[in-house]
Specification:
single chain; 793 residues; alpha/beta; four-stranded mixed beta sheet; three-stranded mixed beta sheet; 7% strand
Length: 793
C-alpha cells in the first residue's frame, strides 16, 4: 500500500487495485486477532486461506502484536485503518460494549474483555501521531472539516443548520474514525496532566482540542437529539458513550481554568493563547439556542410546578432510565446509556411510571450524560424546578400520612421540626436537635422552626417568616465548617489565595469519637441550604466537591489541596522525563532518596504509610516515578479522608440526589452553594429588586445612597452584600430569586451618630436618614467594613 501511494496510485481500499491489499490486510488482521485471543475470537476466523496465512506470517514478522499493527496502520493510512476497524472490529458487538469499559479499565476500573483493550493499546502505541492521523482523516476525507471550520470561525453563530447532519455522522465512512479518535483521545487524557495538556499541547495541540469540542457537540447533537432513531444500534451507542465520556473529560479540564492562578505556567499560557481563553468560555460548549429552549421549556414551565403530575414529570427527567432492556437492540448491548440513580428524590407512589415519550427520553439522556451542552443558568433553573417538584411530592406525602402518625404540620401542611438553639452553642444544639430519633431525610426535607435562646436563657421574640431559618443556617454553617471544631481544615495555595477553601480533616477522629456523625450532620446542613436556596459562606475545595459529584480525583486536583506537594510531583515528572540527565548520568529521581511511602502528621505526631506493599523498601526512580506520582495523589485525594467524605455524602444525599448535582462541575457547584463572587456586583439588578420602607427610590437621598454603593471597591461591595444578607456573593439567577427580598428601612438617627445596621435574617438594611450625603458615605463605609450592627430589634 505504501509503494502504491509512492507510485502515485493512491492508497487505501478505494485506490485502483487497492481493494485486494485492503481485504488481505483485513483478513490477516483477523487471523492475528484469532491467534492472540484464542477461542474468544474463533467466530472471526477466516479459515485456512493460504494467502491470508502468508500475509499474517509476513505481518507478524514485522510487528509483535495486533496492537502494534493497528498503530502502524493508523499513522501510515488512517483511512484504511478506519476501514479495517469498521469491517473487522464492528463485526462483534461486544467490542462496542466494552470499548467504554476498556477506558474505565485503564482508569483503574474492572478489567476489559474481548478486543476493546487491544484497540486502545494500539492507539497508545501510535501516540499523538496516530490521533493526529485520525483527526486529519476525519477533517479531510470523512468530510467533517468544513463543518468544524464553520463553527470555529470568529463570526460564527451556533445554529443547527451549521451542524453536520446525522446521516453523515453515522455513515460507515465517518463513524468508525470518530469512534477510534474519541476513544483514543479519551484514553490518552487519562495519563495526561494539565501541565502537558495546556502548556505542552499533548496529546493534541490547542487548535485540535478546540475543534474536537465542536465536533463532539455536532456528533452528540446528531445522536442524542436530531436523530430520533439513534441509540438503538450498537455502533451509535458505542459512539455516544465514547463522545459523552470525552466531552466530560475535556469539560472538567476547562473548568479547572477558573483556578489557573494556582499554576504560573498555565496562567502565562492562557494569557498568551487566545484559543485557550475560548476553551474556558461557555459559548464553546453549548448547543444551539433552539435546542436549549426545547429542553428548558419542557422542564421549567412558566409559573412553576402547578400539579403533582407536573412534579412527577420533572423528577422523571433525572430518574433511572426505565425499560432499558426493552429499548435495547437485539445484540444485547448495554441499552441503559447513561442511566443514573435518583436516590433521595421523593416518590409517593408504588405504581409503575407511565410510558415516556421519545422527547422525554431525549431530554433525560442529555441531562444525565451531556449536561454541559446546556448553559449554566439553564441547568440552575432545571435544578430549582427539580427541588420545587420534590417539595410538592413530599408535601403531598405528608398530608396523606399525617392523620395516621400524628406528625406536626405547619399552616401550609408541611412537616414541622422544632429546635431551640442557644446563641453560644449553635452547632451543639442543632446537632442534638436534628440528630435525635429519626435521623433520616424527612426531618430536614420538611420545614424547620427555629427558636433562638439568648445569653440569659430567654427565648427571643420573633416571627419566623423564613428569615430565622436563614439566620440559623448561616450560623450553623459557619460553626460546622470552622476549622476550630476539628471537622474541616483550610486548604489551597501557600500564599493564602485559596486559604478559605475547606476540606475534611483526616485527624477529626482524634478530637471526637462521633466525628463521622458530625460529618453526616454537616452534609445534611449543606444539603438543606441547597434545598432551600439559601446561600452560605463556606467555600469547599474542588477535590471535596468532586466527591459530592461522585467523581474520581486525579493528580491535577492535588494543586487545590496541597500546592507545594503538587509542584514537587510535577518537578519529579519532568526529571523522570529527562531520564536523570540522559546516558549514563546518575538517575536524578533516585538521587532524591525517596521511597513508596508518605508521611502523615497528626497534631505534631508523624507516621509513615506505605503506598504499596513493602513500599518503604521500594525506591522511587525515573522508571517508576509516574506510578509514585499517581499513588501519592490517589492517597491524598481519595483515600486519606475517605471515611469522613463518605459520612458527609450520606447526609448530603438525603436531600440532594447525586444525579441532580452531576449536571454541574466543581466550580459550578460552589456557585450553587455560595453564589457568584467572580463577577462585579450587579447594582442595577439589585436596585430593581429592593423594597423601601420610609424611603422612595426617586428621593435624592436614596439616589445618593446608590451612588455611594457604586463608588465602593469590588471588595467593599462584597462586604456590603455580606452586611445585609450574610453572604458576600450574589445569587446566580439575580436578586429577584433571593428570599426574603432585600429591603431598606428608614430609621431615625437616634442617638446621634448611629451607624447603619442590618437584620441579616430578613435581608434588611436599617438606614438612618443623615443630615448630609458626606455623613451617609462615612457611616455606611464604616459600618460595612467593621461588620457593625446585626440589630435584630
Amino acid at each position: 500500500n505504501r509503494n502504491r501511494k509512492a507510485a502515485g496510485g493512491g492508497g487505501g481500499a478505494d485506490a485502483e487495485g487497492g481493494g485486494e491489499p485492503a481485504s488481505l490486510l483485513e483478513a490477516a488482521f483477523i487471523a492475528i486477532l484469532t491467534r492472540e485471543r484464542g477461542d474468544a475470537a474463533r467466530r472471526l476466523d477466516v479459515g485456512g486461506n493460504a494467502d491470508v496465512r502468508r500475509a499474517a506470517a509476513a505481518l507478524l514478522a514485522c510487528v509483535t502484536s495486533s496492537e502494534q499493527l493497528l498503530a502502524a496502520l493508523l499513522v501510515e493510512d488512517a483511512g484504511l485503518a478506519c476501514g479495517v476497524f469498521a469491517r473487522v472490529v464492528l463485526l462483534d458487538a461486544s467490542l462496542l460494549r466494552n470499548l467504554g469499559g476498556a477506558i474505565d479499565h485503564w482508569a483503574g476500573a474492572a478489567e476489559a474483555t474481548d478486543y476493546a483493550a487491544p484497540v486502545l493499546k494500539a492507539l497508545a502505541f501510535g501516540g499523538s501521531a496516530a490521533l493526529l492521523a485520525l483527526w486529519e482523516h476525519l477533517m479531510g476525507a470523512a468530510g467533517l472539516g468544513a463543518y468544524a471550520e464553520k463553527l470555529a470561525a470568529p463570526d460564527a453563530g451556533n445554529a443547527e443548520r451549521d451542524y453536520a447532519p446525522a446521516a453523515l455522522v453515522t455513515s460507515p465512512a465517518v463513524l468508525p474514525g470518530l469512534l477510534l479518535y474519541f476513544a483514543g483521545l479519551s484514553h490518552a487524557l487519562i495519563a495526561t496532566d494539565d501541565e502537558d495538556f495546556f502548556v505542552a499541547g499533548k496529546p493534541v495541540p490547542p487548535a485540535v482540542a478546540l475543534r474536537t469540542v465542536l465536533v463532539l457537540k455536532m456528533v452528540l447533537h446528531a445522536l442524542l437529539w436530531a436523530n430520533t432513531g439513534a441509540l438503538r444500534r450498537p455502533p451509535e451507542i458505542a459512539l455516544a458513550l465514547a463522545a459523552s465520556r470525552l466531552l466530560r473529560q475535556l469539560r472538567e479540564r476547562s473548568s479547572r481554568l477558573k483556578f489557573s492562578r494556582f499554576d504560573a505556567d498555565l496562567a502565562l499560557r492562557l494569557e498568551r493563547d487566545a484559543g485557550f481563553k475560548s476553551f474556558a468560555s461557555e459559548d464553546l460548549w453549548v448547543w444551539p439556542r433552539t435546542t436549549i429552549n426545547c429542553i428548558t421549556a419542557a422542564l421549567v414551565p412558566d409559573g412553576g410546578v402547578q400539579s403533582l403530575d407536573q412534579a412527577e414529570h420533572v423528577l422523571a427527567a433525572l430518574a433511572p432510565a426505565r425499560g432499558a432492556a426493552a429499548r435495547g437492540a437485539a445484540g444485547g448491548e448495554d441499552a441503559s446509556f447513561g442511566g443514573g440513580s435518583a436516590a433521595g428524590a421523593m416518590d409517593i407512589t408504588d405504581k409503575a411510571a407511565p410510558p415516556r415519550s421519545e422527547s422525554d427520553e431525549r431530554i433525560s439522556r442529555v441531562l444525565r450524560d451531556v449536561p454541559d451542552l446546556l448553559p449554566f443558568k439553564s441547568r440552575v433553573a432545571i435544578f430549582e424546578r427539580l427541588i420545587e417538584a420534590d417539595k410538592a411530592m413530599f408535601g403531598a406525602a405528608q398530608l396523606q400520612s399525617a392523620a395516621f402518625f400524628g406528625m406536626p404540620l405547619d399552616s401550609r401542611g408541611a412537616q414541622l421540626s422544632r429546635i431551640r438553639v442557644r446563641r453560644g452553642s449553635v452547632f451543639e444544639d442543632s446537632f442534638q436537635g436534628l440528630s435525635s430519633g429519626d435521623t433520616g431525610a424527612r426531618p430536614l426535607r420538611g420545614r424547620i422552626q427555629v427558636t433562638f435562646v439568648n445569653e440569659h436563657g430567654m427565648e427571643e421574640a420573633g416571627i419566623d417568616g423564613g428569615g430565622l431559618l436563614k439566620e440559623w443556617m448561616d450560623a450553623v454553617c459557619k460553626d460546622v465548617f470552622d476549622p476550630q471544631y476539628g471537622f474541616f481544615v483550610t486548604t489551597g495555595a501557600e500564599d493564602g489565595e485559596a486559604g478559605n477553601q475547606v476540606s475534611p480533616s483526616y485527624a477529626s477522629g482524634v478530637l471526637s469519637s462521633e466525628h463521622l456523625e458530625g460529618f453526616r450532620f454537616a452534609g445534611r446542613i449543606l444539603g438543606k441550604a441547597l434545598y432551600e436556596g439559601i446561600l452560605v459562606e463556606p467555600q469547599l475545595s474542588p477535590p471535596f466537591i468532586n466527591k459530592l459529584l461522585g467523581r474520581y480525583n486525579h493528580v491535577d486536583d492535588l494543586k487545590f489541596l496541597d500546592q507545594a506537594l503538587h509542584r514537587g510531583l510535577m518537578s519529579m515528572k519532568r526529571m523522570a522525563r529527562d531520564k536523570g540527565g540522559g546516558g549514563d548520568a546518575v538517575d536524578a529521581v533516585e538521587a532524591l532518596g525517596m521511597y513508596f511511602q508518605i508521611d502523615v502528621e497528626t497534631f505534631g505526631a508523624r507516621h509513615s504509610v506505605d503506598l504499596m506493599p513493602n513500599g518503604s523498601d521500594v525506591p522511587v526512580t525515573s522508571a517508576n516515578a509516574l506510578r509514585y506520582i499517581y499513588l501519592v495523589s490517589h492517597f491524598k485525594l481519595n483515600m486519606l479522608t475517605r471515611a469522613q467524605s463518605e459520612a458527609f455524602l450520606r447526609g448530603f444525599r438525603e436531600l440532594i440526589p447525586e444525579t441532580w448535582l452531576r449536571m454541574f462541575n466543581a466550580p459550578e457547584v460552589q456557585l450553587l452553594i455560595g453564589g457568584d463572587g467572580y463577577r462585579p456586583l450587579d447594582i442595577e439588578d439589585l436596585k430593581a429588586n429592593v423594597n423601601y420602607h420610609g424611603f422612595h427610590q426617586s428621593q435624592p437621598y436614596v439616589q445618593a445612597f446608590w451612588r455611594t454603593i457604586e463608588e465602593l471597591s469590588p471588595q467593599e461591595q462584597a462586604d456590603f452584600l455580606r452586611f445585609i444578607t450574610s453572604c458576600s456573593r450574589q445569587p446566580l439567577l439575580g436578586f429577584r430569586s433571593i428570599y426574603p427580598k432585600i429591603a431598606i428601612h428608614m430609621v431615625p438617627e437616634e442617638p446621634p451618630g448611629r451607624l447603619p445596621s442590618a437584620a441579616t435574617c430578613m435581608n434588611l438594611l436599617k438606614l438612618p436618614r443623615y443630615a448630609d450625603v458626606a455623613t451617609l458615605k462615612e457611616k455606611l463605609r464604616y459600618a460595612i467594613s467593621a461588620n457593625a450592627g446585626f440589630d435584630l430589634s
